[in-house]
């Protein structure tokens, strides 16, 4: 790479923003996504994201899942531009049963927007996702939604976020009333009044600059609510945490906005601040060293695999997040797990709604690689130096099922189907050391229904589930071979290997798990492990 392209690399990296939206179902993630895409010019009409969600919602209906997956290849990553920035919005499936997938998507973002329903406050799924963000200290911007409804008092929501999620809040805007009395927001930093008109987004020059809240125009516009706003602003000036860029970037403070996504209110304010403060692609740890985005050699890792998106072609796409260097179509790269050199001939970008071929891409961008069964989640691709990016987790399943084939002749297909679904991260599989039945493990039970349906429709396997009485699974590691062998001998009937041949202890009860971990202090029982 010559000097000019190095400069270009830095510039392109600087203008990338790769983020995900975290929220509890129904807080307004889909609505907000849609408004963001509208501002970015990626969609022309409200309703397109919504329509997709409607089909995704009916998870019990297989056709709906199929349909949703068909469309969701383009929705898994949405790239759009806003001002000078290229934004990559990674979809984080909201349903808790798909949470493992969501967790992994969050390993590929540099920041997150957290949507909170002002009526409900912090909800369980948000709490879980926040824990994941905390693993990597991901910076988070908060959007408190549905101010057009009667909800919790703003200060109570802030308290709720601070106490439940253990993150300091720095309000950047403040609501004036709520529900029927919702008049808009006052931007505490820009000292601007954003007035609310249901169903409309104010243009930037519609915003009223009010440097001092004693300005009599406030009384004219807000009537009796002007006094409330003055009181609130005075209180906040004394008591609220000022925004601190460093604390935001290290994940200990979240700037807070209020608005109403459905009414397009507060979304532009959020987006304007987002492009200003959200971090560009950050350095990433690999097993041997830290990798910096501005490095000239290309590198990236796979955080998601999606199969059979086009039922006619059965193609599988590996989603790769670029961590450093410039990607060029046709580039030859090294695949760390296999050590082989491969050519990335027809990678896909996710510009606007359509899949397009990527001619070039930069750190922070996501490209889709056609996968014929050789790529796994967590795999790293790099230009010359063989790298392996760490930090893509796999979670121990909490639910288990035994698979029984209805026709023994289909054993081969079952193996193939399961193998591919495992590789995609849709399900986990365990082969008990004793016995021949496969045990499937999932983080959420819905994964079982989806797996069975897909085994049937995509692989022609007619099978049924039987209960598998396990309470937990743990990956077992030990450097002392003798001790490990002794454990294997003692606990043989509860041992299995996973798809990558790693030893797993399938605990019949949590009590037993505790007992065995006390009995075998030299062994580690891992609840999460990294793909490697
Ligand atoms: P999700 O992706 O987080 O699950 O939430 P989604 O955007 O689908 O929003 C969930 C519900 O909340 C939707 O209503 C949506 O219209 C509504 N909503 C989103 N933003 C606001 C807001 O600012 N104010 C109010 N009052 N409602 C909001 P729904 O009845 O489930 O769907 P629909 O019939 O409106 O499509």
From TrEMBL:
This protein's UniProt keywords: Cytoplasm, GTP-binding, Nucleotide-binding, Protein biosynthesis
Highest taxon of the lineage: Bacteria
Gene3D superfamilies, sorted: P-loop containing nucleotide triphosphate hydrolases (3.40.50.300), Peptide chain release factor 3, domain III (3.30.70.3280), Translation factors (2.40.30.10)
Keyword GTP-binding tagged: yes
Positions contributing to GTP binding: 23-30, 91-95, 145-148
GO MF: GTP binding; GTPase activity; translation release factor activity, codon nonspecific; translation release factor activity, codon specific
GO biological process, one term: regulation of translational termination
GO cellular component, one term: cytosol
Keyword Membrane on entry: no
Domain (Tr-type G): residue spans on this chain: 14-282
Annotated compartments: Cytoplasm
Membrane spanning stretches: none
Pfam families for this protein: EF-G_D2 (PF22042), GTP_EFTU (PF00009), RF3_C (PF16658)
Chief subcellular location: cytoplasm
Similarity comment: family membership: Belongs to the TRAFAC class translation factor GTPase superfamily. Classic translation factor GTPase family. PrfC subfamily.
Biological role: Increases the formation of ribosomal termination complexes and stimulates activities of RF-1 and RF-2. It binds guanine nucleotides and has strong preference for UGA stop codons. It may interact directly with the ribosome. The stimulation of RF-1 and RF-2 is significantly reduced by GTP and GDP, but not by GMP.
Stated name of the protein: Peptide chain release factor 3
Organism: Desulfosalsimonas propionicica
Originating gene: prfC
